[in-house]
């Protein structure tokens, strides 16, 4: 039975008074609610037996039964069959029963003698809950299927982030590694292997190149798999990157591991030439600590590939130690994700300032004054601000003023960072004021809509009128006005009711209809809750 195509349900009626159950089975139109089977039980123990035998979806049970009470039955049902929804039926209209029932997960609470309309309402609500749970289960299964399908890409992304130096809190990284089924732990001793497929492979189309990468990866896994745990992916330059560690337990001889790994990667280098008729360049890094040293290991491997191999092909290089630092280094942190542009685009003003402070700290490791570094940072800052201004359909000069933009000479990194922070504060203030003005304009439009259509006014009605989602309308109205849109509509209706009572001879039911209340008794109840007296009493006091 495929419940997602058509929801077919089965129900169990439980009451020690047999005639109650028998009459209810016959008198109520269960089929109207998609219930094709009605079971009956005359005690809690019998009900539990039937629940074990049949695929019951809903239980309607009396509370007061000899032996096992309805509450005890519900407690057992929820303990063993949590998907089953329970509705309590009782002659005791007391809150304590209802409160205790709620603790056991009862979805509805009905009072004898049973009103069929109330039962209809309770069943509709219960079935709606069941449908939502089925949909959630289906959504979860679909999400898990999508997760499994995208797992290789997720592993690739995480590896790319780590070799680029992205830092994760230790517990979060552990969770990701476990969730992605990656058998590496923080502080593991690892090596990095960088592989570049050479011209023979890249002359083919993209699909063929991906097949060659797959073949090279398979060869690597066959050669390294017996002795090493591996995690592989691609970098931004379409090179293959492998992180490897010994799969030997306990203390291991690092020299022995390096010798074995060097031998295996030599085999990989020659096997690709032999089996695929094409060359690869392979860089084997020095050992490092996972994930702390990954960025340095990757960058040194990239540097060796760029400087020692260059445009030549088919090389194997083993790095014995970290590369010596040059006095001229690229400002990698300046381009790290999230970029300056992304921070502005997503309104992360404080994050932008923190990135600028990182630039200030970075300056301590740079020459005392380097015009090229300062110009590089200034250009990046200015470019990000031009982008966000133009995205807001404005000129940057109109948003922050010419005075800030005309400042171009900076004699220190500190001066440059202070200028960037001033740009952030000025732009943030301007854009937030514009946003607030826009929000106030939308709320005024909502209020005008309510005033002109007071009888029909509701959250959905107003949302349709201003072409916005009801949830956003609710949140925006509360943020700007300080009260919910429902409260505002009620207040306006009550103000209009008072005016009609004071200034007109309209009858109470006419005022009720004028304000959109189909039931005048409900209008009287709402008015009394608001003013402490009925509309008639209020008019009498005028």
Q: Give average pLDDT, whole number.
A: 85
**Main beta sheet, described?**
6 strands, mixed
**Proportion of beta-strand residues:** 5-15%
Quaternary structure: single chain
Protein name: Response regulator
Modified residues (4-aspartylphosphate): 62
Domain HTH araC/xylS-type: 444-541
Organism: Paenibacillus rhizoplanae
Task: Characterize the structure shown.
Residues 444-541 form the HTH araC/xylS-type domain. It is found in: Cytoplasm. It comes from Paenibacillus rhizoplanae. The chain has 542 residues and is α/β, with parallel strands linked by helices. It starts with 8 loop residues before the first strand and ends with a helix. Strands 6, 7, 8, 9, 10 and 11 form a six-stranded mixed β-sheet that branches. A five-stranded parallel β-sheet has the order 2-1-3-4-5, with helices on both faces. A hairpin with a 5-residue loop joins strand 7 and strand 8. The relative contact order is 0.04. Helix 16 (413-452) packs across helix 17 (459-466) and helix 19 packs across helix 22. It has helices at residues 18-27, 44-53, 70-80, 95-103, 116-163, 170-179, 199-202, 206-224, 254-276, 294-309, 340-345, 349-362, 371-391, 396-400, 402-405, 413-452, 459-466, 470-481, 485-503, 508-514, 520-531, 535-541, and strands spanning 9-14, 35-41, 58-62, 85-90, 108-111, 189-197, 228-234, 240-246, 280-284, 288-289, 316-318. The mean pLDDT is 85. It has 22 helices and eleven strands.
């Amino acid at each position: 039975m495929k419940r997602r195509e058509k929801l077919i349900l089965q129900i169990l009626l439980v009451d020690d008074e047999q005639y109650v159950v028998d009459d209810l089975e016959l008198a109520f139109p269960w089929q109207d609610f998609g219930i094709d089977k009605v079971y009956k039980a005359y005690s809690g123990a019998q009900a539990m037996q039937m629940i074990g035998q049949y695929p019951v979806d809903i239980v309607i049970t009396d509370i007061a039964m000899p032996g096992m009470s309805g509450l005890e039955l519900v407690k057992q049902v929820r303990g063993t069959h949590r998907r089953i929804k329970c509705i309590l039926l009782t002659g005791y209209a007391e809150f304590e029963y209802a409160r205790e029932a709620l603790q056991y997960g009862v979805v509805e609470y009905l009072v004898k003698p049973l009103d069929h309309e109330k039962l209809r309402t309770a069943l509709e609500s219960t079935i709606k809950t069941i449908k939502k749970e089925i949909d959630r289960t289906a959504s979860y299964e679909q999400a898990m299927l999508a997760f499994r399908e995208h797992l290789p890409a997720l592993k690739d992304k995480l590896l790319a982030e780590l070799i680029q130096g992205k830092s994760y809190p230790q517990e979060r990284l552990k969770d990701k590694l476990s969730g992605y089924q990656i058998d590496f732990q923080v502080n593991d001793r690892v090596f990095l292997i960088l592989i570049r497929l050479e011209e023979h492979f890249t002359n083919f189309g993209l699909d063929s190149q991906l097949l060659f990468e797959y073949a090279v990866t398979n060869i690597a896994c066959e050669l390294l798999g017996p002795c090493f745990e591996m995690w592989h992916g691609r970098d931004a330059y379409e090179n293959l990157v492998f992180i490897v560690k010994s799969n030997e337990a306990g203390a291991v001889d690092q020299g022995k591991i390096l010798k074995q790994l060097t031998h295996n990667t030599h085999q990989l280098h020659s096997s690709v030439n032999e089996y695929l008729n094409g060359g690869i360049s392979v860089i084997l890094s020095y050992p490092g600590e996972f994930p702390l040293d990954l960025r340095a290991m990757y960058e040194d491997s990239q540097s060796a590939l760029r400087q020692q191999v260059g445009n030549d092909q088919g090389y194997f290089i083993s790095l014995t130690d970290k590369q010596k630092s040059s006095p001229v280094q690229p400002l990698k942190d300046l381009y790290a994700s999230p970029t300056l542009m992304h921070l502005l685009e997503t309104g992360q003003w404080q994050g932008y300032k923190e990135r600028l402070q990182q630039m200030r700290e970075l300056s301590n490791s740079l020459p005392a004054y380097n015009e090229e570094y300062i110009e590089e940072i200034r250009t990046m800052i200015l470019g990000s601000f031009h982008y966000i201004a133009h995205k807001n359909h404005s000129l940057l000069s109109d948003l922050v003023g010419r005075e800030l933009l005309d400042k171009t000479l900076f004699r220190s990194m500190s001066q440059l960072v202070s200028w960037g922070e001033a740009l952030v504060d000025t732009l943030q203030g301007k854009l937030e004021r514009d946003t607030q003005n826009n929000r106030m304009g939308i709320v005024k439009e909502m209020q005008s809509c309510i005033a002109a259509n007071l009888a029909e006014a509701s959250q959905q009605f107003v949302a349709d009128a201003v072409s916005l989602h009801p949830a956003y309308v609710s949140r925006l109205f509360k943020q700007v006005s300080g009260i919910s849109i429902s409260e505002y509509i009620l207040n306006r209706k009550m103000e209009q009711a008072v005016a009609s009572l004071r200034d007109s001879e309209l009858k109470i039911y006419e005022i009720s209809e004028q304000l959109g209340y189909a039931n005048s008794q409900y209008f009287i109840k709402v008015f009394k809750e608001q003013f402490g007296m009925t509309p008639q009493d209020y008019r009498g006091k005028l």
